[in-house]
Amino acid sequence: MKKVAILLTMVLLVSMAVFANGTTEATGAAKTFVPTKNIDWYVTSSPGGGSDIFTRQIMDIAVAENLLNGQNIVVQYKTDGAGEVGRLLVSQIKAGVQADHTLLTFNSGDLMPMVKNTNNRFQNFQPIAHMAVDKHLIFVGEQSKYKSFEEVLAALKNGERMVLAGSKGDDIACHAALIKELGVSEDQLSYVAHDATSGAITGILGGHFDLLISKPAAASQYVEAGKLKPILALSTSRFPGNLNSAPTLSEFGYKNVEVPNWRSVVAPASMSPEAVAYWTDVMKKVSESDAWQNGYIAKQKLVPDFMDSETFKAYGTKYQADYLASIGKDK
Asked: What is the pLDDT of residue 29?
């Protein structure tokens, strides 16, 4: 009886360990993972911006499609240091239950300032999935002095100064590319960066800035309400739907300017291979859903571009190397 009791105790302990880690391992069988606790999903920009909308859309679909094993997602907003504090936190999570239950919304607009201003790198994260590509437009608000990009160009040629507001990362890169192509200085067309586009939108609606740079996701509802008007598409072609009135830069005799922003999901580099496979599959199912394709993608005027973990890893690594080379950094 004593031997039987010891054996039962050992079985119980093993079973508890398996449940705590969200994995199972039969003799000769591969490990598998399912979430067994709340998932911490980090967003390094403020609520209401494009990253927040992207994150919550994936969450809503994952819940509706029963993809989370009955668990909940808790969004953690970490915006300190333009999001660098949050990204560093995720990159440093050690292997274990927490790592397997942690996700991070990560965009090219996050990567560029991160590798430029810190030692944190793409390889410090585990790529999960690349989901879509986003582009930018220039908008004016109801209180803006200028009502069209023709008026903006005329004012710049007359030496007038104006302020463009937006978010960080790729928005800043777009501003740099725009003033270079227009041949104006940063003093003449200056830039004010916010933690998220939502803050810049609040500013232009209050009449504090002349122009706004935004992706469709953050500005769409304000365009529909007549509060914002798109006046320039920072793209090689016009946007569809209610953004179609915005001309491209080439329509004014300049070269088109665009800095596409890819939207993706990553995790701590310490995440287990089993959890990586699970979360990549979740993102693939989300990307194939009608709610994603005909809801989020169509409504936000994005380009669907799903990549699995390995494909996205190669893509992101090359993107980082190319960007570092462009700013004169070796690694």
From this structure: 52
Question: Would the CA dihedral through 169, 170, 174, 177 be positive or negative?
Answer: positive
Residues 217, 223 contacting (CB under 8 angstroms): no
Q: Give the tens place of pLDDT for each residue, 260-285.
A: 889 999 999 999 999 999 999 999 99
Domains within the chain, CATH numbers bracketed = 12-133+262-326 (3.40.190.150), 136-252 (3.40.190.10)
Q: With cut-offs at 50, 70 and 90, classify the pLDDT of residue 17.
A: very low
Question: Rounded distance, CA 214 to CA 134, Å?
Answer: 10
How far apart (Å, rounded) are the C-alpha atoms in residues 15 and 11? 6
DSSP 25: -
pLDDT of 23 higher than 60? no
d(CA 48, CA 7): 54
Beta-carbon contacts of residue 100 (< 8 Å; ≥ 6 apart): 21, 22, 33, 35, 271, 272, 274, 275
Sign of dihedral through CA atoms 199, 200, 205, 208? Answer: positive
Q: What kind and span of H or E run contains 240?
A: none
| CA neighbours closer than 13 Å in the CB half-sphere of residue 256 | 17
DSSP 8-state code for residue 123: G
User: Is the pTM of the predicted complex or chain greater than 0.85?
Assistant: no
> Do the Cβ atoms of 81 and 117 come closer than 8 Å?
no
- The backbone torsions φ and ψ at residue 18, rounded to the nearest 5 degrees and listed phi first, read -65, -45
Q: Using one digit for the tens of pLDDT, what is the confidence trace for 123-176?
A: 999 999 999 988 999 999 999 999 999 999 999 999 999 999 998 878 998 999
Categorize the per-residue pLDDT at 89 as very low, low, confident or very high, splitting at 50, 70 and 90: very high
In the three-class reduction of DSSP (H, G, I as helix; E, B as strand; rest coil), residue 252 is classed as helix
Contact 97, 37 (CB under 8 A): yes
Half-sphere exposure of 198 toward its Cβ, with a 13 Å CA cutoff?
A: 10
